[in-house]
# Entry
Amino acid sequence: MKKIILILIMISFCTIFSDTKIIVDSKMTLKEALKGTKAPKEILDEQILLDVEYFGFDNKLHRGQLVIHKAVKDDIKEAFELLKRIKFPLKKVIPIVKYKWNDNKSMADNNTSAFNYRKIANSNKLSNHSFGRAIDFNPFQNPAVYNDGKISPKGAVYDEKALGTLTPTSELTVFFKERGWRWGGDWTSLKD
# Structure
C-alpha cells in the first residue's frame, strides 16, 4: 500500500512539474486548412501542412500549423527548431483559413502565417504568400511600414526592443538570409 501511494505521489509530482505539456493552437487537416481559398489547383497541389512547436508569449510550449510550399519545408522546420531552442516567442501559428482568408484580420490577431492566395498590398502582383513561399512572424511586432507612414496591421508599432520583434541581426533573420530568403525589413519602398 505504501508503494502504491508513493508511486501515485511521484506521478502527481511529475505531472505538476512537467514541461512536456503542449498547448495545441491548431489541429487541422490540409483539406480544412485550404478550404475556401481561391488558389488554382496547381498551386494547391504544392502546399503541405506543417505542425510546428514554439514558445508563446506565456512562456509555454505551443503547437500550431503552417501551410507552406513543400520546397521550403526543411527551412521552415529548421527555423522553428531555432525559435524553440532560443525561446523566441510567437503569439500563435494558425492557418489563415481561420480568418476567412483575410490577411488584415490575421495580422491584427498577431498570427504567424504563410500561405494565403492574395496580391501584394496596393498592387496587382501575387504575393509570395500566394505560393506558400513567405512567412510573417508576429505581424503586430513586425508590421509592414509603407513609405507614406501607413502601418499594417492598424495600431501596430515596430519596436526593436519589444518581445517577439525581429531585427536585421536577429538569429531568425540571419538564419533565413543565409538560406537565400529575403527579409522585408531590407526593402526600400516597404518595410515588412
Q: What stands out?
A: The first strand starts at residue 23 and ends at 24. The first helix runs from residue 2 to 16. The two ends are 63 Å apart (CA to CA). The helical segments are 2-16, 30-34, 41-44, 73-86, 103-108, 171-178.
